[in-house]
Design goal:
The protein is mainly alpha-helical. The protein is built from nine helices and two strands. Strands 1-2 form a two-stranded antiparallel ribbon.
Length: 233
């Protein structure tokens, strides 16, 4: 699979259907199907490391389509919200005065509860998320330039771009959105970026709280493997 032409700085995205009636109603831009397999490869590499097979772990990490994920994230994923809004041309609501906003802005107080409630599944694109603590610990234990979270997008491994969890305000904080469980959903870094300060209406999206969440999954963000990972020396 090749990433099609770059869309940053252009008026349309090659990954986004120009017929707005065919747009996804829950996510501005779905991840390519092949990316899910890259997460499977990462999970296999984790199992190798926990099984004390560092060489096999590094081999599998090196086989992940890191740069392709990275390019899609930067050129398409991050820009999809802008492209949608640019096409729909729905004006932004009036910003709420600072003194009328929720006194709590950062969602850190609730984020772990949000992630657990939403089963470490992004409530926009449906992608699997991995515990922040797990990713931080794994990066430290593997201690390799092959897998790291750098200071820039190009220095950060594609798996982290795909799976880093964020607690997202469905109604933006500066538009009277609450910082609590009634307005926060689990979200991947890509979806959090494209949403930016837009409302779901500006992006032509349905409220993620209206989705059917009765799906069954044993995915837990790899939290069940964290203790074993910590024991590695």
């Amino acid at each position: 699979t090749k990433i099609r032409h770059m869309c940053r700085g252009k008026n349309c995205c090659s990954e986004l259907n120009q017929d707005t009636t065919k747009w996804d109603i829950y996510c501005p831009l779905r991840q390519p199907i092949w990316m899910n397999e890259q997460i499977n490869i990462f999970v296999d590499s984790v199992n190798d490391l926990i099984g004390w097979n560092r060489d096999a772990c590094l081999f599998k990490l090196n086989s992940i389509r890191d740069k392709e994920i990275q390019t899609w994230y930067i050129e398409h994923g991050q820009m999809s919200g802008w492209h949608r809004n640019n096409k729909l041309k729905i004006p932004s609501p009036k910003i709420v005065d600072t003194e009328k906003r929720d006194v709590l802005r950062a969602p850190k107080k609730y984020q772990n509860e949000v992630f657990m409630r939403d089963k470490y599944i992004c409530q926009y694109c449906g992608g699997r998320l991995i515990s922040q603590k797990f990713l931080q610990t794994f990066t430290k234990k593997i201690n390799s330039d092959i897998f790291k979270r750098g200071n820039t997008n190009v220095d950060t491994h594609g798996i982290i771009h795909l799976t880093w969890p964020v607690a997202d305000h469905v109604i933006p904080w500066n538009l009277w959105g609450r910082t609590d469980l009634s307005n926060l959903v689990a979200c991947c870094a890509t979806c959090n970026y494209w949403k930016a300060g837009y409302t779901i209406e500006q992006l032509g999206l349905e409220n993620p709280f209206n989705k059917n969440k009765n799906y069954k999954t044993d995915w837990d963000g790899l939290n069940s493997k964290l203790d074993a990972l910590k024991k590695l020396t």
